[in-house]
Specification:
The protein has helices at about 20-25, 35-50, 55-65, 65-80, 85-105, 110-120, 130-150, 155-165, 170-180, 185-200, 210-225, 225-240, 240-245, 250-260, 265-280, 285-295, and strands at about 1-5, 10. It has a two-stranded antiparallel sheet. The longest helix has 18 residues, at about 130-150. By secondary structure, it is mainly α. The chain has three domains: about 1-105, no CATH class; about 105-200, Tetratricopeptide repeat domain (Serine Threonine Protein Phosphatase 5, Tetratricopeptide repeat), CATH 1.25.40; about 210-295, Tetratricopeptide repeat domain (Serine Threonine Protein Phosphatase 5, Tetratricopeptide repeat), CATH 1.25.40. It has 16 helices and two strands. Helices cover about 70% and strands about 0% of the residues.
Length: about 300
């Protein structure tokens, strides 16, 4: 038994190993660690790997005896969710949400937020090489959220998006059909359009996730100086009108323009840069590159 907070908290330890920080382990004066040492250890263990062995037990101890750590976790999650952050911070947010999911296994909010964050990561340009595994993980968490909260609009919408990216068109259509009655006019029109295209089989030649991974491959080839091969992949992706319709990505013509520059095709590069700016007029890198070529 370990007590803390002036006797307000009493924690019973079982046979599971207790993770401790190195300094706390060296400072042990008896067989049982202190309340503070226990808290620091399980907090660090869960933040490092929320899927570690005995994670459910550690999360229960954290919830039961360490309200200040729980409050700190919530603050970090809110902070990371309020601004546009890079992929490593998305990974950090997912880990923190997983701790809350361990503490509250029947609350749909946490698997929902994990799924939404993973969907965001799976479509980030810097993490496209991980798109397939990331989106399948997103699907799993969103299915869990929907099982806990049937009919929840955010779960339906995001899960439909993930399924569409993975090429699971029938599942995506069923989810959008369920979501449709509660949508306002602008959003309903978008969903209607997608449902019509699915019904008519007006779909990308391959699942969109395959194109996302192919873009990552083309980027790696470009960085290795294989400009012709990279340009061929990007040109093939751009030729799929249905993919371009569903997922207008200015980075594709921008990358193709860079390949053209490296191969000496300045005229073609200008054309592709204008295409990128047509998709996103605020694309700063494309705008700057075009200005340099026109100077």
């Amino acid at each position: 038994m370990i007590s803390g907070l002036d006797g307000k908290v009493e924690l019973t330890l079982g046979f599971e190993p207790i993770p401790l920080l190195a300094d706390d382990h060296q400072a042990l004066s008896g067989e049982v660690p202190s309340y503070d040492a226990l808290g620091r250890g399980i907090y660090q263990a869960l933040r490092t790997d929320p899927g570690c062995r005995f994670c459910e037990r550690y999360a229960a101890l954290l919830k039961e005896g360490y309200p200040h750590y729980v409050s700190e976790l919530a603050s970090h999650i809110l902070m990371l969710g309020e601004k546009d952050v890079e992929v490593p911070y998305l990974d950090r947010r997912v880990n923190l949400l997983k701790i809350f999911a361990l503490m509250e296994p029947n609350d749909p909010h946490f698997p929902l937020e994990i799924g939404i964050t993973l969907l965001d990561k799976g479509c980030r340009f810097s993490a496209l090489h991980l798109s397939t595994v990331t989106l399948f993980k997103a699907e799993s968490y969103l299915e869990r959220a929907l099982a806990l909260a049937p009919g929840e609009p955010k779960a339906l919408s995001n899960l439909a998006e993930v399924c569409f990216l993975l090429g699971k068109y029938e599942r995506a259509a069923a989810l959008w059909q369920e979501l449709l009655p509660g949508l306002a006019a602008p959003a309903a029109e978008v969903v209607h359009g997608r449902l019509e295209r699915i019904a008519k089989q007006e779909l990308p030649r391959v699942p969109a996730v395959d194109y996302l991974e192919a873009i990552a491959g083309a980027l790696a080839m470009k960085d290795d100086g294989e400009y012709i091969e990279a340009a061929a992949i990007l040109t093939d992706i751009m030729s799929d009108a249905f993919f371009a319709c569903e997922f207008p990505m200015p980075e594709i013509p921008y990358l193709l323009a860079l390949c053209c520059i490296d191969m000496g095709g300045v005229g073609d590069a200008r054309t592709f840069l204008r295409q990128a700016l047509k998709i996103n007029p605020d694309f700063a890198e494309a705008k700057a590159t075009l200005e340099q070529l026109q100077a």
